[in-house]
Amino acid sequence: MKKAPEKDLLSLPETLPLLPIRDVVVFPYMVLPLFVSREKSIKSLEEALSKDRLIFLVAQKKLSEEDPSPKDLYKVGTVAAVMKMLKMGRSRSLSRGFPRLP
User: Fold this and answer.
1) What is the separation, in whole angstroms, between the first and last Cα of the chain?
2) What is the CATH number of the domain that holds 76?
3) Contact, 72 vs 65, CB < 8 A?
């Protein structure tokens, strides 16, 4: 199998807003609605929308944790593009995961 040329690889910023998610693990190419209510999570979505729309989605280990620290998150996540955001009580967004990077 040929290796993709460097210019074809997605170039990502060095840092991305982080969005801990519950009840779902996001895989590459997955499109899913996210219901966000935590203030930190809403700020992460707004930051992504104000820049390049990219966000790093990571599943939480414990669903009940309201303010997860790095130890409460899995070590592997998915970079996703925020496609749309609706502000209604709990914010809603539609995100699409990117392919796995080498």
Assistant:
1) 13
2) 2.30.130.40
3) yes
What is the domain count for the chain? 1
The alpha carbons of the chain give a radius of gyration, in whole angstroms, of: 14
Pairing of strands 18-21, 54-59: parallel
Backbone angles phi, psi at 48, to 5 degrees: -60, -45
Q: Could you tell me the two tokens for 22?
A: 């519950």
Question: What tokens appear for 38 in the block?
Answer: 């935590």
Can you give the pTM of this predicted structure? 0.76
DSSP 91: E
Residue 11 included in any domain: no
Per-residue pLDDT reduced to its tens digit, 45-58: 899 999 999 999 99
Question: Under 8 Å CB-to-CB from 54, ≥6 apart: which residues?
Answer: 12, 13, 16, 17, 48, 79, 80, 81, 82
Cβ contact 79:97 at 8 Å: yes
